[in-house]
Amino acid sequence: MDKKTKRVVTVMMILLAIGAGFAISKIVKANKELSVEVKTEGDRTRYIGANGMSFYSMVDTPNAIYTLIDTEGDTDAYKIAKAVYAIDKQTGKMEIVPGSRKMKYGYDGIDSTFGNEHYLGWVEADTDYTTRTVIYDIEQEKILKKWNGSDAYSFSDFHVIGHRVYWLESSGKTGLVMSYDLKTAEEEQLDEVGAEGTVLAFSEHKMWYRDIRRGSGHLKSYDLRSGNYEIHDLGVDYSDLKPVGDNLVAYSKENGLYLYDTKLQKTMLLNGKDNGIKANYDGKGLIVTDQMSYKIERLDGIRYSNTIGSEYPDNHLFSTAERIQSLLFITKVGEHEEIIRMNQDALRWSEK
Questions:
Q1: What is the DSSP string of 27-66?
Q2: Is pLDDT of 285 > 80?
């Protein structure tokens, strides 16, 4: 090798080294950005995001918190997320869920998430209002199923309960309550309802919904085990069902939150100043609104807690109004946001 060639090789090696160092620097910087600080403090864990990072639409699982984020470079002018992120609950490291990444400067993105400990779902939306709903198997790390909306059919209100997906399918004025088994790929029509005003809610073993064709005060339940239906007439116009158990369900009416017992066919007022519209529930006795927490065993067995409201006054946000796996909410602290995962034992209960 002559001197000229040696000089060229040497220069190339130097440039490659500089380039590699620059690339490594970029990777380190990227990895640093894609993480949150984790702090465990007794009855809660804080996941502290960087300044300017906002979290929304979260799903809690044993090992990770799946979330959408709003930060420079991750949303466009339409404020729609470009990926679903998984936050490792132990390390705080954030990784993009495979198959969820969208074009950085495209007009499509992720609108919302849902799911349980086995499956993650997200809704993709375009600027022409078409949507795709995706189901991702967390353990297998692969996409299992997609539903594509169209002008003729729209799909909405997806829920994953166990290994089944439930949703509403609308065409014109007709709505269908549908079910899909993620193990067997069996799809089933469960009911026909009105296309507007129907929202699905779930207790541990039942699905609850309102069919407006029967009148605004009617309530319907479907047993997830037996397939049996029940129809109840609450006698009032209501909204925002929050099941407490398989025979107890809360609902909103005007500015109040009410509780109905299907066996006793009796209603009582939970709170006249809390309409519960932003409420979360676990389907097994717990309701958490932006004002109060309720632990309910029966109509005359109710306890109350203002722990979350007093510790995070006017500054806590539950990212879903659906059935929750845990007390997971977002709070803003100065210039940054934090995800708080609180143990239910932290709630201090009183009889009134």
A1: HHHHHHHSB-EEEEETTEEEEEPPTT-EEEEEEE-SSEEE
A2: yes
